[in-house]
Write a structure and sequence with these properties.
117 residues; mainly alpha; two-stranded antiparallel sheet; 2 strands; 66% helix; elongated
Length: 117
């Protein structure tokens, strides 16, 4: 008995006809994701998903290619130094670097906000 409703729903789904017109060659296609004539993608959701995946891949490649500046790279590498004193010193210097960078950024934002009125 449980198999019967599944079969009926599959039959109903398969019996629905979906005609999609290809934007490239203006051919009507029945229940397909790709055009039978020219082979281009005609399913909009599939096309959007593929574009989204390409954008994600491109962002991942940019993140891999994007290197931190030399000060951050030096301070990060020195936090993994085998000597404990050097590690502690580099952590303190890195914390001070972040603090002063935040202060300078805040000052720049305050000057821009005052100038904007």
């Amino acid at each position: 008995m449980l198999i019967l409703p599944q079969l009926t729903s599959n039959i109903l789904f398969m019996s629905q006809k979906s005609y999609i017109k290809c934007l490239e060659c203006n051919t009507l296609n029945l229940n397909t994701d790709y055009c039978k004539n020219c082979g281009s993608i005609i399913n909009i959701t599939l096309k959007r998903n593929l574009e989204r995946e390409k954008k994600i891949q491109k962002n991942k490649e940019l993140e891999k290619a994007n290197k931190p500046n030399k000060i951050d790279e030096f301070l990060q590498s020195s936090t993994e130094h085998p000597n404990g004193i050097v590690r502690m010193f580099s952590r303190v210097v890195y914390a001070m670097w972040l603090f002063f960078a935040a202060v300078v950024g805040g000052l720049i934002a305050a000057v821009i906000a005052i100038a904007a009125g």
